[in-house]
Amino acid sequence: MRRGKRRMIKLKFSKIYSFACGKTSFQRDHSRIGGHGHSRVVVCNEPGSFEGEIFSYADNSVRSTKYTVATFLPKSLFEQFRRVANFYFLVAGILAFTKLTPYTAVSAILPLSIIIGATMVKEGIEDWRRKKQDIEVNNRRAILHKGDGLFEYTEWKNLRVGNIVKIMKDEFFPADLLLLSSSYEDAVCYVETMNLDGETNLKLKQGLEVTSSLHEDFKFHDFRAVIKCEDPNANLYSFVGSMEFGEQKYPLSAHQLLLRDSKLRNTDYVFGAVIFTGHDTKVIQNSTDPPSKRSKIEKKMDKIIYLLFCVLFLIAFVGSVLFGITTKRDLVNGIMKRWYLRPDSSTVFFDPERAYAAAIFHSLTALMLYNFFIPISLYFSIEIVKVLQSIFINRDIRMYYEEANKRALARTSNLNEELGQVDTILSDKTGTLTCNSMEFIKCSVAGVAYGRGVTEVEQALGRSNGSPILNESINRLELKSNEIRDSPDRKEPIEGFNFTDERIMNGNWVHEPHADVIQKFFRLLAVCHTAIPVVDEETGNISYEAESPDEAAFVIAAREVGFKFYKRTQTCLSMYELDPISGNEVERTYKLLNVLEYNSSRKRMSVIVKDERGRIFLLCKGADSVMFERLAENGRKYEEKTLEHVREYADAGLRTLILAYRELDEEEYKEFDDKFSEVKNSVSADRETLMEEVSDKMERNLILLGATAVEDKLQNGVPDCIDKLAQAKIKVWVLTGDKMETAINIGFSCRLLRQGMKQIIIHLEIPEIQALEKAGDKRAIAKASRESVHHQISEGGKLVSASRGTCQQTFALIIDGKSLTYALEDDMKNMFLELASYCASFICCRSSPKQKALVTRLVKSGTGKTTLAIGDGANDVGMLQEADVGIGISGVEGMQAVMSSDIAIAQFRYLERLLLVHGHWCYRRMSSMICYFFYKNITFGFTLFLYEVYASFSGQPGYNDWFLSLYSVFFSSLPVIALGVLDQDVSARYCLKFPILYQEGVQNVLFSWRLILSWMLNGFISATMIFFFCTKAIEPQAFDKEGRTAGRDMMGVTMYTCVVWVVNLQMALAIRYFTLIQHIFIWGSIGFWYLFLLAYGAMPPSMSTNVYKVFIETLAPYPSFWVVTFFVVISTLIPSFSCSVIQMWFFPMYHQTVQWIRYERKKSNPE
């Protein structure tokens, strides 16, 4: 609708407001005010009063930054040196200032400073962005009462508890406010809470009647009040307090609380008193950090670091022992064995008479010398790579949902590689597998089924079963749809309404045998709801803002049948309906007396209304599990038929609700209203429970009208996605609140369940349990239920065990929420998990949010494998946070799931690409990157150890100090970062074509200890070959025509050159997908080494020390250097290359098999 061309009815309400008459009662109130947790006292509109000064409450500024100017340096340094590797390098850098050091202090400190500095800069930039957001929020403007009835603009950060503020339409609330009055006479206002819970529907709030007259600015000149309420807490949906005003006390509830960051909508202005400010506000109290998650690869990497530390300490210990023995033998009985070293005049570090002390000092020197075994830039490089990987995920155009303008969003980059190792997916159904866009498609009224439509589930079952009757029905329906579509006077499709039945539509219902029941049925749909009508003034069309898609579908269905709800005031609902006697459309107005709200425990909602003739009705709609037991004996006339239809609807994958009513007499209603008002206006912890109890007594002896059936269509691509995930051998578990029949048939339609799959159903709908439930013995029910569930799990286990190894029978486990309660008990959960793990599919029906989280925890801890949870609503948050990876669907149920997730996507079908493509790539890249990091550092570090052995463990490095320092920073780090970001073993098309590739990550074949140790062994072999080939090739004979032999400086440069070539070419051999960037980084690193050697060697000897013009004068001019380099590099690469060829030919992995397939296809079809 065009802006300005739609008008919303002035007085409306939502479920948070119930219309109970009567004055405020305090017979049961204040049981908690002043006690523990309820000690807050707010003095309104008296900023300078004594009472206002003695309470020291937080100001209204917020800070989301991790650091301040004063704490940035110490805190960030502490964060960096919490890592064992960084702390080790710090200690080594400090020791570099002593005489123990084998290199200069500057060369030891500089690489660490670069890595730590770069990480701190990254942290600082991220924190500065948060700081700018804080400044923007804190400097927003609000209208504050300055005194004497004058209001002026001030910044949010200046607000204090007790201030009176005026909020205008479409402005955000700057703090948690107590609503005093609004532009409406009855102090109601409409609030959008999208920033809090992501819900787009409007919530209605209403101030107290006693303050509703404060409409004008000047009226606050003499306003004084004292509010006593609960202390700051994170509960968004409750508030307990009282207000002392005019020597009387009035109870306060969440109906009067306006939360910070909510927006005022459809209300010109409101006045409010500041209750909670800054970090005391409920939204900030809720902004706790999500649980810290680390990938399995990262955890394993820590173990490898510790292993390398053990290797480092071992070789340092062995070298020091050998050094001590050799040093002790240098001087025996005054005879100097190695006289040229002058052991008789050596310092304590080489003194034969103090060999033990020399060995200890040598161990410290060795620990500093061998620290190159530990990759100093590993953590920083991994952080860079993960951020870049996340950017690629975010910008993948194939995961962009154009209809909603939403893309994939990696909210954390810590878990990218975990996407490639998922073994089990735990999924919500509604809004995740389905659209959560409900369509009214069928109904049962007075025992008669209405609605000709065929659901997606029925179509899927018809295709899989080959049912000729159903196929004929589907073809007939499609033919009729085509006729309607081709008709010149066809109507546009109506969102939320897909009902076709000539017996009901166009007023034909008046000719039905039970027209009076049909009238009550659709009248109930038009009245029993919390929807808000929106009228287009240009066309007169009415649409509705409803609390849920189901509710919108019901009101639309009533409108289309002829019961048009169009207006709501504070106490009345108005509608047009067809009068069956006159045949004319007449206006009906119902006085709204009470709303008995829906919640997940009640599973129903009711309204109490009075019609124009003064009759009082209770209209109720709810789940069949709670409605049938509330029917009166004379209200069960259509029960049998309705039950039969409900089961049919469930089989068709539809969501059902039961509709019933009862008529109340004045006296009965007055007694209820008095009790309800008393409880509602009380201030006590158990107020909600008491309200439910009072409501429960009234919602009895109902008369059944019928049942509704709405369809929640599957999202596009869901069946194909689940099928592809199944081909990748990823288990998919669905946890839903639907009935078992509905869940099973949805399972078939989305291909989670397949024909030929044996179903193991665990439930408690058995005669023995039902008999005990009628008797009401809770202990006996619990005992029998526990035994029944245990027996069913045992039988299922036997069935699975018997078929194992004999046939290819696949199983599906289906369990209801009641049974799951017992299956998750300590003595049964392992047996339950074992059974579920052997099943290809798992469906849990009627499950609660807590059960979803518990099942996720059980799978994660019980199997030790990676779990992924995916959901779209607030009820999925526990499951998302419990799983190793949480995926939020940015659907129509708000953004709470997204805000609690690790990665957000717009549609379930994008999970296929996220896992099979990005997950596989990220896992392979990260595994290869980390293995290569350890390989290159072991190759470099072990040459130092071999040189030490060669030099009698003298503690002297074989390379120049700056060669040591810059190896990991400049000569070998960039190619590995390019590998981690860009490499692909196979293309995205082949990842999706061969889903079995994904099992490489699930089985962790690319980061197994065998592969890690093989990379390490390759490093040791490469180092050994480089060292011995170089030393044997250039040392014994003259190096040039003048007869000069190679010294330590020449041999060091030659070895270092070979190391740089080998580690970069080894990287080139490991890459499967070359890009220009990778070529630049690999060949650029090698080229940069030669440029550095030229530049550094050209510096004065005081700076270049032992490499002064070594390359330009003594190495580059002579062919022997280039021949040795070429020979050593090729020889060193041959063993690993040969192993790779043998492994690929005879023991190929999944990705290598696919590479062969791709190669053969290209070979046979070059085009």
Automatic annotation (TrEMBL):
What topology does the record note for this protein and the membrane?
Multi-pass membrane protein
Pfam families recorded? Cation_ATPase (PF13246), PhoLip_ATPase_C (PF16212), PhoLip_ATPase_N (PF16209)
Q: Which InterPro entries match?
A: ATPase_P-typ_cyto_dom_N (IPR023299), ATPase_P-typ_P_site (IPR018303), ATPase_P-typ_TM_dom_sf (IPR023298), ATPase_P-typ_transduc_dom_A_sf (IPR008250), HAD-like_sf (IPR036412), HAD_sf (IPR023214), P-type_ATPase_IV (IPR006539), P-type_ATPase_N (IPR032631)
Entry's Gene Ontology molecular function annotations? ATP binding; ATPase-coupled intramembrane lipid transporter activity; magnesium ion binding
Indicate where this protein is primarily found. membrane
Briefly state the protein's biological role: Involved in transport of phospholipids.
List positions binding Mg(2+).
D428, T430, D872, D876
Q: What are the P-type ATPase C-terminal domain coordinates in residue numbering?
A: 898-1148
Q: Which SUPFAM superfamilies match?
A: Calcium ATPase, transduction domain A (SSF81653), Calcium ATPase, transmembrane domain M (SSF81665), HAD-like (SSF56784), Metal cation-transporting ATPase, ATP-binding domain N (SSF81660)
Annotated ATP binding lies at: D428, K429, T430, E551, K621, R655, T736, G737, D738, R846, K852, N875, D876
Its protein name is Phospholipid-transporting ATPase
Q: What's in the keyword line of the UniProt record? A: ATP-binding, Magnesium, Membrane, Metal-binding, Nucleotide-binding, Translocase, Transmembrane, Transmembrane helix
| Regions that span the bilayer | 81-97, 103-121, 304-325, 355-380, 933-950, 962-982, 1012-1034, 1054-1073, 1080-1099, 1119-1147
Q: Which domain of life is it from?
A: Eukaryota
